[in-house]
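Hi P.,

Sorry for the delay on this. The queue was packed all week, but I finally got your sequence through. Input first:
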Amino acid sequence: MRLLYEGKSKRIYEAEGDLVFVEFKDDVTAFNGQKRAAPPGKGEITARISNLLFEYLKGKGIPTHYVRAGERGFYAKKVRILPVEVVVRNVATGSIVKRLGLEKGKKLSPPLVEYFYKNDDLGDPLVCEGHAIYFGWATEEELKRMKDLSLKATALLTDLFSRAGLRLIDIKYEFGYDSDRNLLLADEISPDTSRIWDDEGRSYDKDVFRKDLGDLVKAYGEVYRRLKGVLG
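Then the structure:
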């Protein structure tokens, strides 16, 4: 397959028809790429989790670019990604605590939705709906659709993680249009793009790497084990 794009944690290859193959690398980065590593097995376990969660959302009626699982990745519809990322927060932690002086661990109910401009050079800055509309990154209708789908997906995933003895703290989504102009949830769904805690506040996501909290692959493996135990 011909390589179309290589990012920090994934490679995108041209596949049959209007499909691409999303391959997960072992690479992991933090702090806008200032911290890097490539723990063996990280790509494989991240792919397994993402496949599992996409299959789950697909079964619940959430429109995604995911088509089917593959080795160390998945096949997906080719999409044109919108440059606006949606973050849904169930609990205050990370950047929002620093920005607003909130207490870490504060429950956010209902979940809080934030938008970020997808631009690595700028560090993916926080933006408001007005910025997105004014600069043509997304229309008002697109933002509403993205928000609605993000909240529905988060509600489904929050319940799933709860049944697995885990807490979905926050999660990032990306969206894109396929060739038929369907707006789809795209990119990946994994501990790379979300924060996951257990009931005692231990992290099972990329914070394990960011904060040197232990073995990242082992933490991701525990997430997969618990989710697989619930979904079968």
